[in-house]
Design brief:
Layout lengths: L2 E6 L6 H12 L3 E7 L4 H10 L11 H10 L8 E4 L7 H9 L3 E4 L7 H14 L3 E3 L7 H11 L6 E9 L14 H6 L2 H4 L4 H17 L3 E9 L10 E8 L4 E7 L10 E6 L2 E6 L5 E6 L5 E4 L7 H5 L11 H20 L14 H19 L4 E3 L3
Parallel strand pairs: 1-2, 1-3, 3-4, 4-5, 6-9
Antiparallel strand pairs: 6-10, 7-8, 7-14, 8-9, 10-11, 11-12, 12-13
Helix pairs in contact: 1-11, 4-5, 5-12, 6-9, 9-12
């Protein structure tokens, strides 16, 4: 049975809304039946028409969507609300949706502030609803293989972690172009929050590190920069990390690395060996050893773990990519909800998606990094 999906945000001209819709549609677990696609009602209705939705279920605001869908019969109303708005418009619709009985999928970072994230966690606990957070990169099959190898002890005790996310699209004052909406809101503290690059892509790097290693950041020391003149938020930074087992790490996030696209890369080293994964070649995971040659592991090969193969779709050698990784979050969330609707207990494979805890920790990372970057006392305790 398909889950009935409603979307908040993602109107015409919005990048990430279309990605969410592709991800939701890929495995056939959702049917988009309603939306409040823009704060401008005319844009919302034009988007709904373009998507072929019933005009009666295309709304002019998120409040209208949630209240009117809640009033529909249980067999018709939206079951899951997907929130794909800028950061400052995550918390209020997520809170209202959860309190109205809907499960929620929300883009990252989860909220505008750590205080909002903690409050939203309390709402999730009080309502018993579920929330998924679209930290896309955890959805790649070879990222899941990396996580499994670490958990199985293939690297031994983790000693050192490097994670980097270089982009170059903000190497100029792109927000000065009124038509560049993505640059406009992502560099605006009123809409993005206290962080720029560290909130936008640094949170992805942070989440990937904790997901794969199974460790948590306990202390950090940040150097935060704003390189492009006139910009209000950080566009470059590096962070030293101290992890829960005593290991050290380095996180780099920059949006002024001219010529770079989205080559997120993670390297993890333990006492026995290391692993290396990067998005530019996401179907490959390098497994390194002290005493024998490096192994090259490939997506959906028969020697991979069940977790990795559960999240792969095509035979080895056929590339899978960003949309499929994004879709894995939507699919696993759907499988979890469908199991619960059937009175069954979701399996660990189904429950493998980022959620409320990752959302709170992501906001704690943002605020800790910015605080450390502004402080003369550089090492900052991390507390979610």
């Amino acid at each position: 049975m398909k889950l009935r999906l409603g979307m908040i945000g993602g109107g015409q001209g919005a990048f990430i809304g279309a990605v969410h819709r592709l991800a939701a549609a890929l495995d056939g677990h959702y049917e988009l039946v309603a939306g409040a696609f823009s704060s401008r009602p005319e844009t919302s209705h034009a988007t709904g028409q373009q998507l072929g939705l019933n005009p009666a279920r295309v709304y002019g605001s998120y409040q209208e969507l949630i209240e009117q869908e809640k009033a529909r019969p249980a067999t018709e109303r939206v079951q899951v609300v997907s929130i794909v708005t800028p950061n400052y418009l995550h918390f209020a619709p997520a809170k209202l949706a959860l309190e109205s009985g809907f499960d929620v999928i929300v883009d990252k970072p989860m909220t505008f502030s750590l205080a909002e994230a903690r409050e939203l966690a309390a709402v999730v606990q009080a309502t018993g609803r579920r929330l998924a957070l679209t930290h896309t990169y955890t959805g790649y099959p070879m990222v899941k293989e990396a996580r499994q190898r670490v958990a199985d002890g293939a690297l031994g005790s983790i000693r050192k972690v490097y994670v980097e996310y270089p982009q170059g699209w903000l190497s100029t004052f792109a927000e000065g172009d009124a038509d560049n909406k993505q640059a406009g809101w992502r560099t605006d503290p009123a809409r993005s929050g206290v962080a720029g690059a560290m909130g936008d892509i640094g949170t992805h790097a942070f989440n990937l590190l904790e997901y794969v290693t199974g460790l948590q950041v306990e202390k950090l020391c940040a150097d935060i920069n704003t390189v492009v003149p006139g910009r209000q938020l950080d566009d470059d930074g590096a962070v030293l990390l101290r992890l829960s087992n005593g290991a050290s790490g380095v996180l780099v996030a920059t949006q002024v690395a001219a010529g770079e696209e989205n080559n997120l890369r993670l390297r993890v080293y333990g006492e026995k060996g290391g692993l290396d994964w990067q998005q530019a070649d996401n179907n490959t995971l390098l497994l390194k050893h002290l005493d024998r040659p490096t192994e090259t592991l490939r997506t959906n090969a028969p020697y991979l773990s069940a977790a990795a193969r559960h999240n792969a779709r095509v035979p080895p050698g056929h590339p899978e990519g960003y949309i499929e990784a994004f879709a894995n979050i939507y699919r696993n969330f759907a499988l979890t909800l469908q199991a619960e609707l059937a009175g069954e207990t979701p399996s660990p494979k189904m429950l493998d998606f980022p959620g409320i805890e990752e959302g709170v920790r992501g906001m704690a990372f943002i605020e800790s990094v910015i605080a450390s970057g502004r402080s003369e006392q550089k090492w900052t305790a991390f507390s979610a």
